[in-house]
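Any chance you'd type out a single protein's sequence alongside its tokenized fold?
>
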Amino acid sequence: MAVSTEPMSEAPPLDPAAPVAADKPKTDEGSFVWFLVKLVVAVVLFRTLLFTSFMIPSESMMPRLLTGDYLFAAKWPYGYSRASLPFDLDVGGGRLFGDLPARGDVVIFKHPVDRSDYVKRVIGLPGDTVQMVAGVLHLNGVPVQKRRIADFVVPIAADEGCRGVRFTRKLAGGGFACSYPQFRETLPGGASYNVLDLGLLPQDTTPPVVVPEGRLFLMGDNRDNSLDSRFPAVAQQGIGLVPVDNVAGQASFMFFSTSSRWGSPSTWLSGIRWRRMGRAI
């Protein structure tokens, strides 16, 4: 077998005077900062133009919404105003691409006095006359259809109570629940939803109120446990007739729900209401 006798080529010697290629600068830190900037911009745009989140703090919107429900509210259906902006930034009055809510919509809005977040259902639009007569809602002089349906039953913890002892029920499997009289109410135009009515109370009979231009008459579905447009606007209490510009968005769907008490870790997992997640409002 022939063996090559050609000499092996040698690598040329390094020239000390030749320029040496510089190492590429590390960009990991810069990339992370840029990622954070883009993330902040995306969150601000999401919160400003698309959705805002809200946690239900009370029973005023039972049976549809329970204390501990977390929901997203869409901002674009009614246009944009100061109430739509993160942190309630004061940019003056008025709305951009403004539109009125429809009767029956559930809206997130700023309280007219202290500008805290509230949630209620739209009942009266500008020009409407709203009145309660012995627990029956009247719109423009006409009674709104109200039909009795099965009681609304919500389990309670051992140390919780109902709005009255007469509404407390012992469950077959143990434990207790509140069982509240429930009705199906249907507004002109077809919007239909359930309300609770615990009996005749002073707020069940009111004088007729004409909703002025630029205002809304809002009510809670838990009619006897809701400080709403039937009461004058007072900080942390009634809301009076709410300016349309105070509406931040339309309640859309629930993304989380829990009956857990944060001071009691044993309830953190057991209190999650899995079946309510993803529900439309």
Notes: The two ends are 88 Å apart (CA to CA). The first strand starts at residue 51 and ends at 55. DSSP finds one helix and 15 strands in the chain.
